[in-house]
From TrEMBL, chain A:
Residues 234-260, 307-380 are annotated as: Disordered. It holds the Pfam family Intu_longin_3. One of its GO terms (molecular function) is small GTPase binding. This is Hermansky-Pudlak syndrome 4 protein. Residues 29-134 form the CCZ1/INTU/HSP4 first Longin domain. Residues 360-375 have a biased composition (Basic and acidic residues). One of its GO terms (cellular component) is cytoplasmic vesicle.
TrEMBL record, chain B:
It is a lipid-anchor. Its cofactor is Mg(2+). InterPro entries: P-loop_NTPase, Rab9, Small_GTP-bd, Small_GTPase. This is small monomeric GTPase. The gene is RAB9A. Pfam families: Ras. The lineage of its organism: Eukaryota, Metazoa, Chordata, Craniata, Vertebrata.
């Protein structure tokens, strides 16, 4: 296994300059999909079960060895603990594992990658595959292994490429640099999306420029899926044309195409309910049926245009976040104290919808074992993860000398027990939520979603654990269509109902209603993206927005120095630590050369390093230690980046 | 005659809400949408048209009328071949502002000869019954300010929209014809002057 654990240099093009980024870890060592149903008898060769193995050039014997061992170990642990395996840790690498039906997925990376990141990557890979190909079992019945292997390879390279290591740590979305463009252009993008939703067959959309998000109406997980195809087609168009898809109207630089995709019921529900949360007035929820009456939706959506309301300066600043569920890369909205960003956020609404969805399915299938399953699966995962945290944070002797946790930190048993209790409470609350969910008006719902997100972290963790757990990903995927309209480097991507492409008027309506605005937005973005970045300042920071899954940092624009490497490494450790230790709010992690301050809330995580501030580090606790000034410095420095830690 | 197809940039300017976007949409897609948003910055659409045997691709630039969008729209004035000054016949203030729009355009588009630049004036919303600006007033303004063509249009019921844009094309083509006649004589002068100077001394 050591053979593949290497550090590598990757060149990333950014604007005009090419920047050398040092990768402290190999991204993925191994990825495999193993179908246990193909290997039942003693005589069945292991290779019959290997659907996909990365790196593809690995000798077959080695592939078989790894698959056989992993499948065996995972099965054994799962049966002993009566809960699915999430993570297997070895001395030098670790495997994120997913088992579903007879399938086993495993993704391996070095131990430097935070557990939470590698698990997230694996979930993303699987959900990407399902999004574009449908249920896994069915895909392997319909298509050849070779074809599907090409797809896995594509998703793997997409997740590994193009972004900085910080993006990998948070596995977050790439957004355009909002500091370089007029905020009005973000509003313009949001309005284009809103105008498209006037067509009842359009669920939600996003606008991407050069592979980065300008505006999105979708939950982060869905936006990520859509972006894969966008990047792929963008690359295709920059190569000589190879294969034409269902392109139906081409004029100069502008073209549209449609691609079949698959959404899981909770995603569809989230899109429908997000649409309703966008309403200015409360209506009764209609998203319980997966296919709402188009006429009913139309009348509602038509009334949701800004031109119907007086267009004041206040609209400009308020309408986008609250009215249209936009994920705009303006970090200034996601401050600690800004409650408005929580209520109608796509992430939270998705989660709330998801709650209802999981609960429903659980109720119907195996109501008795339900709470038992949850408790066990989470309990096990938690204790596993706890062990990791100690090893990752405390056991690293190379750089970490002292670690100070300022916030309250629960440890060991108390944490585990506490978590169990909260989960029990959570179950009950879920049920109540679900009941209310169906009957109450939207306004109340919004408040409640806000409270949930602000609420205690175990709950959030619980949701994250279950969000992409995948029990229901495969169960009943709903076919949808991804509609893309490209104007040079700008893409309007819409998730539309399956009948959209064959509808008599809808494609033309959407095309014509957005073409002029897209043309305009494209020239605006093309002419405004040339601004030179300001001086980076004597500090590094990374601000992660957990709700929108976006990252703001001043790191990517310059050559990484030794302090930047420490910063990235410390950020990975702190992020990992925060993900295990729910009640920790602030932490400082330091080596002999640098101290990094991290702070988090339910909505964000912020990491800060002051350059050249090691003078007063005496090695023993000292009230004059400059590290203790970090929280204050972070608060002041980051204000001008729109990050409010006050 | 229809030998070359050229791209003509035509820009619509005027107060917010006079119907610039609607005029563009009516002309290019023959649709009228009562639920349009305020335009932010600029937008444009292309349309291939044949005017008097000339094939041209008309690139129609629609701009934001609101003052707060000024910094977004003005960089795109440059390179325009024709400017359509638009007002609404039911809004006298939008008519009074035509002069300001003309000034703003000449300044930001860096027009070298404002006297000869092709402007066309459009009085939109002809379908509205309560007019505030009479045809005579508008025509008088056009005559006094450079003998511009004046069209009364309705994007809602498609009155005169096509003819207004076609007039814009004619104006540009006429300008180009004139320029083609003028250019040769100018260049001859420039090249010959130095030589005549030396013989003189």
């Amino acid at each position: 296994m050591n053979k593949y654990s290497f550090s590598s240099y990757v060149l990333i093009g950014r604007g005009d300059a090419c920047i050398l980024i040092l990768w402290l870890h190999p991204t993925f060592n191994y990825f495999l999909l193993y179908d246990g149903s193909k290997v039942k008898e003693e005589g069945d060769p292991t290779r019959a079960g290997i659907c996909y193995f990365y790196p593809e050039e690995t000798p077959l014997e080695q592939q078989e060895l790894l698959c056989g061992q992993l499948a065996g170990v995972s099965r054994c642990v799962a049966e002993l603990s009566t809960s699915p395996v999430r993570l297997l840790r070895l001395r030098r690498s670790k495997f994120a594992v997913r088992m579903r039906e007879q399938f086993l997925w495993a993704l391996s990376s070095s131990v430097d990658v935070p557990d939470v990141s590698i698990c997230e990557f694996l979930d993303q890979l699987i959900s990407l595959f399902c999004f574009y190909n449908g249920p896994v079992r069915q895909s392997y019945q319909l298509h050849s292994r070779a074809d599907l292997s090409a797809h896995w390879a594509k998703y793997l390279s997409h997740l590994q490429g193009g972004s900085t290591e910080l993006h990998h740590i948070f596995s977050c979305l790439q957004t355009i640099d909002a500091t370089k463009i007029d905020p009005l252009l973000l509003l313009k993008a949001a309005l284009i999306l809103q105008a498209c939703q006037r067509c009842p067959l359009v669920l939600a959309g996003c606008i991407l420029y050069r592979g980065r998000i300008v505006s999105t109406q979708m939950p982060p997980s869905l936006t990520l899926k859509v972006m894969v195809h966008e990047t792929e087609t963008y690359n295709q168009e920059h190569r000589p044309p190879a294969n034409e898809r269902s392109t139906f109207s081409t004029g100069g630089q502008s073209s549209t195409m449609t691609t079949p995709v698959f959404l899981n019921p909770s995603e569809v529900q989230a899109l429908h309910s997000a649409g309703e949360l966008c309403c200015f007035f409360s209506t009764s929820r209609s998203h319980c049926s997966p296919q709402p009456d188009p006429r009913a939706r139309k009348s509602r959506l038509l009334s949701r245009t800004l031109s119907d309301t007086p267009f004041s300066e206040q609209d400009l600043t308020n309408s986008s976040p609250s009215a249209s569920c936009q994920t705009m890369p303006c970090s200034h909205r996601s401050s600690l104290s800004d409650e408005s960003c929580f209520s109608p956020s796509p992430g939270s609404s998705q989660d709330s919808a998801h709650f209802a969805a999981t609960h429903q399915s659980e109720d119907s299938s195996h109501a008795d074992s339900e709470s038992h399953d949850y408790k066990l699966s989470n309990g096990i995962t938690l204790s596993e993860v706890n062990g990791d945290s100690k090893e990752a944070v405390f056991g690293d002797k190379e750089e970490t000398m002292i670690k100070t946790i300022i916030g309250s930190v629960e440890e060991g048993n108390s944490l585990t027990n506490g978590h169990h209790l909260t989960l029990e409470d959570e179950k009950d609350q879920n049920h109540e939520d679900h009941e209310r969910h169906l009957h109450r008006p939207v306004k109340e719902e919004r408040l409640d979603v806000g409270r949930r997100v602000l609420g205690d972290s175990p709950e959030k963790m619980w949701r994250e654990e279950n969000r992409t757990c995948g029990e229901e990903i495969d169960s009943e995927l709903l076919p949808m269509v991804l509609y893309e309209h490209r104007v040079r480097a700008l893409v309007l991507a819409l998730l539309v109902e399956p009948q959209f492409p064959t509808d008599r008027t809808a494609p033309e309506e959407v095309y014509h209603s957005s073409l002029a605005s897209l043309n305009g937005l494209e020239v605006h973005l093309r002419t405004s993206s040339s601004g030179a970045p300001g001086p980076p300042g004597p500090y590094s920071f990374a601000h992660y927005d957990c709700i929108q899954n976006t990252l703001t940092t001043n790191l990517s624009g310059r050559l990484p120095g030794p302090q930047d490497r420490s910063f990235v490494r410390a950020t990975a450790l702190l992020h990992s630590h925060f993900s295990h230790t729910y009640s920790a709010q602030e932490a400082i992690i330091r080596s002999a050369g640098a101290a990094v301050y991290g702070t988090r809330s339910a909505a964000q995580e912020t990491f800060f390093l002051q350059h050249a501030a090691t003078a007063r580090n005496s090695g023993i606790p000292n009230p004059l230690d400059s590290a203790f000034a970090l929280p204050n410095k972070a608060r002041h420095r980051l204000l001008k980046h729109g990050v409010n830690l006050l | 005659m229809a030998s070359k197809s050229s791209l003509l940039k035509v820009i619509l300017l005027g107060d917010g809400g006079v119907g610039k976007s609607s005029l563009m949409n009516r002309y290019v897609t023959n649709k009228f949408d009562t639920h349009l948003f305020h335009t932010i910055g600029v937008e444009f659409l292309n349309k291939d048209v044949e005017v008097d045997g000339h094939m041209v691709t008309l690139q129609i630039w629609d701009t934001a009328g609101q003052e707060r969008f000024r910094s977004l729209r003005t960089p795109f004035y440059r390179g325009s071949d024709c400017c359509l000054l638009t007002f609404s016949v039911d809004d006298s203030q939008s008519f009074l502002n035509l002069g300001n729009w003309r000034k703003e355009f000449i300044y930001y588009a860096d027009v070298k000869e404002p006297e000869t630049f092709p402007f066309v004036v459009l009085g939109n919303k002809l379908d509205v019954t309560e007019r505030q600006v009479s045809t005579e007033e508008a025509q008088q303004w056009c005559q006094e300010n450079g003998n511009y063509s004046y069209y009364e249009t309705s994007a809602k019921d498609a009155t005169n929209v096509a003819s207004a844009f076609e007039e814009a094309v004619r104006r540009v083509l006429a300008m180009e014809d004139r320029a083609e006649h003028l250019i040769p004589t100018d260049t001859v002068n420039l090249h010959r002057k130095p030589r005549s100077n030396t013989t003189c001394c």
